[in-house]
Amino acid sequence: MKEVFLKKYIIILLIAPFLVIGCKSELESAAKTENENQKNTINYKIEKIKNENFPSQLINIEKKLDYVKNKYQEYLISYKSDGLKIFGKMNIPDQEIPENGFPVVIINHGYIPPNKYDTDNSYRLVDGFFASSGFITLKSDYRGWNNSEKLENSVYNRLGLVRDIKYLLEAIPNIEEADENNVFVFGHSMGGEVTLKLLQTIDDNKLRAASLWAPCYEYYPEVSLYFIRDDGENEEMAQKRRKKILSYIPEKDFPLYSVTNYVNYIDIPIILHHGTMDKSVPFQWSLNLVEELKKHGKDYTFYSYKDDHNLSNNFFSVLARDVKFFKKNIQ
Asked: Residue 325 — φ and ψ, nearest 5°?
C-alpha cells in the first residue's frame, strides 16, 4: 500500500454536485402499489445484493454514434435491469482485437441532473481516453437518467443504481470483442459510491481493479442528505427527504445500506484520487475511506492533490495514471 501526495494544482471536469431528487408520479395509487412490490421483491441492502445471483444479460445495439478514426467506434446501447430498460454507451477500440479480447472499463458517472445528462457527451473525455488506450468502455446512464426507465419511488430508485451496474457486469461475457476476465471500473463522485457498493457485492475475479475519483463515502442516508443540505441552506428540504426515506426504511436498518460498513468486503486493488480543497465531495471522506482500507489491510494507492478543488489542468495525466494502473493489473 502507498499514499502519494502531489502538490500540483489539478482540476477535473466540472460536474454538478450530486443531489438526490424525489420523483413523483401522476398516478400515485398505482405508483404506491409498484413501490410496495419493489420493496418486497428486490434487494437493496448491500449484504442481500452480495448474495444475489444476477442472470446473464444481453446488450442491444440501438445505433452507431461517432466513429473516431483509428481510435474507437461509439455505440448507443440498452439492456435490462430489474425489468427496466437502461440506456448507455459503449466504445470499442478501432484496433486489432487481442487474442483474448479487449479489457473492459465500466464507467460509473457522477451526479448530473437526470434531464441534463447526455448519454453520448457526458464523460466523453473519460470513455474516449480509455477506449483510445485499448479498453472497451461501458457507461450506464443508470435508471432515471436521460431516457432510461425508472422506479416511481425515488428512495428505491437511488438505492438501485448499483443493481444497474451488477446487471451490466453480467452482459460483458456476451460481448464478442471483450475479455471477460479483465474487467475494471471507474467511479466519480456519486459514481464512486456506486463503485464502492459494486466492489462490496461482487464475486471473486469479476473485477481486476478500480479507480475512484472523489468518491461519496459516508453513512446512509447522510451520503445524499449532505448535498441537499448545502451547508445548512436547505436543512428543511434535507429533513423532508430524510422523512421520506424513513417512510420506507427504518432507521435501525440504515447501516445495511451504507458503504461505510462493508469496506472489509473489498478484495481488489484501488487507486484513489481527491483534491484537498474539493468543495463538492469533502476531502475528509477519502481520508476516512483510506483509514478503513488501511485498517482492513486492503490494496490501495491514494493520490492527494494539494489545494485542488476538483481535478482539469492535469486531467489527462490522472487518466493516464489510471490506464497504467489498470494495465498493471491485467492478467
From this structure: -65, -45
